[in-house]
Design brief:
Structural class: mainly beta
Number of strands: 12
Number of helices: 0
Strand content: over 45%
Largest sheet: 6 strands, mixed
């Protein structure tokens, strides 16, 4: 059974840093493009960072230069290093394949990890 488990979130002051981790089980990250997504209260979930199977990365403009996505295929884990955090980065952060996993024809998401940035 495929499973995604995100961790590393927390409460941090503006300008601070956090490192998120995402461990997968039941399938291999190495064969998939992976993304970090976030959903702020009252907003749609958005893709903020992506990494291809070859290691190419891309970011939404709002996080460019501040966030770094990386992957460790041997550990089946993906990371998101977040620096210079801003209050508008406050959201629940999820990792997933890109496009997102579908299990029994339904999109699957892990529980996410809450990131709260205080001003």
């Amino acid at each position: 059974q495929e499973q995604l488990v995100e961790s590393g979130g927390g409460l941090v002051q503006a300008g601070g840093s956090l490192r998120l981790s995402c461990a997968a089980s039941g399938f291999s990250f190495s064969f998939n493009a992976i993304g970090w997504y976030r959903q702020a209260p009252g907003k749609q979930r958005e893709l903020v960072a992506g990494i291809s199977t070859g290691g190419d990365t891309n970011y939404v403009d709002s996080v460019k230069g501040r966030f770094t996505i990386s992957r460790d295929n041997a550990k089946n884990t993906v990371y998101l290093q977040m620096n210079s955090l801003k209050p508008e980065d406050t959201a629940v952060y999820y990792c997933n394949t890109n496009p997102p996993l579908r299990i029994n024809f339904k999109a699957y998401w892990g529980q996410g990890t809450q990131v709260t940035v205080s001003s």
